[in-house]
Amino acid sequence: MPIKRIAILTSGGDAPGMNAAIRAAARSAVSHGWEAFGVRRGFAGLMAGDYMRLGPRDVGGILQQGGTFLGSARAPEFKSPEGQQRAVDALSAAGIDAVVVIGGNGSQTGAHALSTHGIPVAGIASTIDNDLAGSDITIGVDTALNIALEAIDRLKVTASSHQRAFLVEVMGRDCGYLALMAGIAGGAECICIPEIPTTPEQVAAELDDSYSRGKTHGLVVVAEGAAHDAAELAAYLVEYGKNRPSYEVRSSILGHVQRGGIPTASDRILASRLAAHAVDSLARGEINVLAGMVGNQLKSTPLSEVAGKHKPFPDDLFQLAKTLVR
Ligand code: F6P
Q1: What pLDDT shows up at residue 226?
Q2: How many beta carbons lie within 10 A of that of residue 172, not counting itself?
Q3: CB of residue 127 inside a 6 A radius of ligand 1
Q4: How confident is the model at residue 13 (pLDDT cuts 50, 70, 90)?
Q5: Which residues contact 97 (CB under 8 A, 6 or more apart)?
Q6: Hey, which residues does 196 pair with through a beta bridge?
Q7: Cβ atoms of residues 22 and 70 within 8 Å
């Protein structure tokens, strides 16, 4: 059946650039002669039939805004077959033929589930965690990384003034990508990520080593999913330093600040390209795929190869970070 109407939703944690993706998906749909509808609050709105018409003017002025103007949600009810059937019924009542899902791992698993009910789906890779298989880079990562980096650069200045050690915790759920990149770009003395567990003793040894090489600060970037979080590491380092000449320790948890930024040029362009590619895929009949960037090329990967999978960790970059700590 030829597509005439599509629904666009954003789901899971918001990511800077989602609005650019909504805009590009809606306008690309119009370029194919289709009608576009936005779904409020992700899969929750999909089940409730909470849709709004998205003409080209309705998506004007959102390109440069962070967050998602459609709203997002984590909707556990959609995991059940009953929840999915409610969504299918609501789509059919609104005469919607296909759905575009902008989101990360959990959202693309939801997109895959929806596709098994016979609804044509296209996913768009969007999460600040960059843990999604099927795309080397996801929408929101660049902005979140730059926000983390600005904080790290500032913390390094004050750390140096006081010869302090700073533990900076960044987001990423179970993935160390953001921490690794922020650590490399921020010149961290030590990076703690879930993929390569680091003990508190190893962190203390790295810091001792740095000070003994004449450094005036110790910067440790900690992924939120690391074996020991920033608070645990800070507590250990304070105890460790009690009976020996030491340095003061402070910690900072960056948290959601990383998610709420104005999308960088890179995220806006990535979002625009992925969204247009997703809609074009639907138009070609290439359905139930994720639009991503692989080897700097736009690529459609079957959702069945994306749902629940994690992409391999870039070991070479971890080695680079180690090499550069001197
Ligand atoms: O998936 C994006 C993310 O920001 C993760 O980095 C983080 O673990 C999680 O979402 C936080 O979720 P919430 O916004 O529900 O607290």
Answers
A1: 98
A2: 28
A3: yes
A4: very high
A5: 1, 2, 3, 4, 5, 6, 120
A6: 193
A7: yes
Quote the pLDDT of residue 20: 98
Nearest CA to ligand 1 atom 4: 13
> Looking at ligand 1, which atom is closest to the CA of residue 225?
8
| Ligand 1 center to 275 CA (angstroms) | 22
**Among 108, 127, 145, 173, residue to substitute to test ligand 1 (most atoms within 8 Å of Cβ):** 173
**172 CB under 6 A from ligand 1?**
yes
Confidence of residue 271 (pLDDT cuts 50, 70, 90): very high
Domain map (residue ranges) of the chain = 5-140+263-305, 142-260
Tokens at residue 326, please?
């001197």
Residue 326, pLDDT score: 87
Write the pLDDT tens digit of every residue in 73-90: 989 999 999 999 999 999
Residue 303 burial by CB count (10 A; 0-12/13-18/19+): exposed, middle or buried? buried
**CATH 3.40.50.450 is held by the domain 5-140+263-305:** yes
Indicate if ligand 1 lies below 6 Å from the C-beta of 129.
yes
Q: Which CATH superfamily is domain 142-260 in?
A: Phosphofructokinase domain (3.40.50.460)
**5-140+263-305 and 142-260: same fold?**
yes
Catalytic residue from among 14, 50, 89, 129: 129
DSSP labels, 238-261: HHHTTTSS---EEEEE-GGGGTSS
Are 308 and 107 in contact by the 8 Å Cβ rule? The answer is no
- Mean of pLDDT values over 145-155: 98
Q: Is 129 a catalytic residue?
A: yes
Distance separating alpha carbons of residues 17 and 63, to the nearest angstrom: 7
Ligand 1 centroid to 161 CA: how many Å? 33
